[in-house]
Specification:
The strands form 2 sheets. This protein has a 4-stranded mixed β-sheet with strand order 1-4-6-5, covered by helices on one side. Strands 2-3 form a two-stranded antiparallel ribbon. It is an alpha/beta fold and 234 residues long. Helix 2 crosses helix 3 (75-89). It contains 5 helices and 6 strands, in the order ααβββαβαββα. The protein has a single domain (34-83, 95-227), classed as TIM Barrel (Alpha-Beta Barrel). 36% of the residues are buried.
């Protein structure tokens, strides 16, 4: 997703690694039909309240703490651009992209209705962004998330489909150490009290409390996803 691969240092090299993998062991790019982004993640499909080219008080949106010099704000722009990068790396021009929209709706009462104030670039971005995570790299049982766009074919140029790859309500991981017979450990990014690490700029994890181990049904998360669905459930 764009929150991991959208930076210049990652974007081109990731496409090159994928090309290397696709042509290993006798395989060719003709064996690849496409790629998927945002798998089991929460990145907003489209941020409508600001653009990557906006400036506030002489500072680019890219300089904000949230964007942190990334070139992409959301999954749709990233997926379309990454598709072009993959083609430039040698993949067929007819490859398609899927976007997992199962949990990136970010609706509900906290969804901004317009841009943030132009008092600073951070206020502008934070006040307008749909994605309410503390950091774009946070990935475990995110508080405030909602169901996203319903699965549909050919929703945008270069995109084969929006899909629900991650079953809504399936836990990303336990919020504390839980003994189990499945060999599943404990990741602090699933602990709601965790204050972060260098990879998420020492932000809180944003994880929901009382989560079961990964892959198990998490009823409280499912209720939240329905409540914060965008488009809203009818």
């Amino acid at each position: 997703h764009h929150g991991w691969i959208g930076w210049d240092d990652n974007f081109g090299p990731t496409a090159a690694i994928m090309k290397e993998a696709a042509t290993a062991e006798g395989a060719t790019v003709n064996d690849v039909h496409g790629f998927i982004t945002n798998t089991a993640n929460y990145s907003a499909l489209k941020e409508n309240n600001f653009t990557i080219n906006d400036t506030v008080a002489g500072k680019s949106v890219r300089e904000s703490k949230w964007v942190d010099w990334n070139r992409y704000l959301d999954e749709l722009s990233y997926a379309q651009a990454f598709r072009s990068q993959l083609v430039s790396a040698g993949f067929n021009s007819n490859i398609g992209m899927l976007i997992d929209t199962s949990r990136n709706g970010w609706g509900g009462a906290a969804r901004p209705t317009g841009p943030g104030p132009k008092t600073s670039v951070d206020a502008y971005v934070d006040g307008g962004r749909y994605d309410r995570r503390f950091n774009g790299g946070n990935w475990c049982n995110q508080s405030g998330a909602g169901l996203g766009e319903r699965p549909q074919a050919a929703p945008a140029a270069g995109i084969d489909a929006y899909v629900w790859m991650k079953p809504p309500g399936e836990s990303d991981g336990a919020s504390k150490e839980i003994p189990n017979t499945e060999g599943k450990g404990f990741d602090r990014m699933c602990d709601p009290t965790y204050e972060g690490n260098p990879r998420n700029n020492y932000n809180m994890s944003g994880a929901l409390p009382d989560a079961p181990i990964s892959g198990h049904w998490f009823s409280a998360q499912f209720r939240q996803l329905m409540q914060n669905a965008y488009p809203p459930l009818s």
